[in-house]
Amino acid sequence: MGPDADPGGGAESVLDRFLMRAGYALDGGGSRIAAARQHASAFLDRARAEHRLPVSQRTRDLTALVVSELVTNAHKYAPGPVLMELRISTDHVDIVVWDSDPAVPSAQSADPGRVGQHGLEIIKAVAEKLFVEQEPVGKRITVRLVLADTLDSA
């Protein structure tokens, strides 16, 4: 089941439950990674200000990390533009990245000598949920993070 499916089978889709959504087309080579992080930071600031959501510093840091990893991989492996969507509810934030490469990423086996290629392992460790969906063109990766945690709700 994909992230946009309604697990309850009701008329309301999961997308209807988000307080805010924003989409971004990321072009410009390596500068798209910094732009994606800036968009994510501004999005979380807006969600906190407009909806008084408890966006913890940990969530802000993890969002920046996930955005960086996903957009970096798209930049390295997929030709053309990268699309990013951010969605937020009262208890989680979704980071959705689409790119044109149809190859579904997989975590590599543990290797302490390997340099790089740890992005998916890192994302799996911090995500509440991870969805990878092949699209008619490319793939869409959705990472869900908890919005606030008990250690730092500031």
From TrEMBL:
Residues 39-144 form the Histidine kinase/HSP90-like ATPase domain. InterPro entries: Anti-sigma-factor_SerPK (IPR050267), HATPase_C_sf (IPR036890), HATPase_dom (IPR003594). CDD domains: HATPase_RsbW-like (cd16936). It holds the Pfam family HATPase_c_2. Keywords: ATP-binding, Kinase, Nucleotide-binding, Serine/threonine-protein kinase, Transferase. GO terms for molecular function: ATP binding. This is ATP-binding protein. It comes from Streptomyces hydrogenans. The lineage of its organism: Bacteria, Bacillati, Actinomycetota, Actinomycetes, Kitasatosporales.
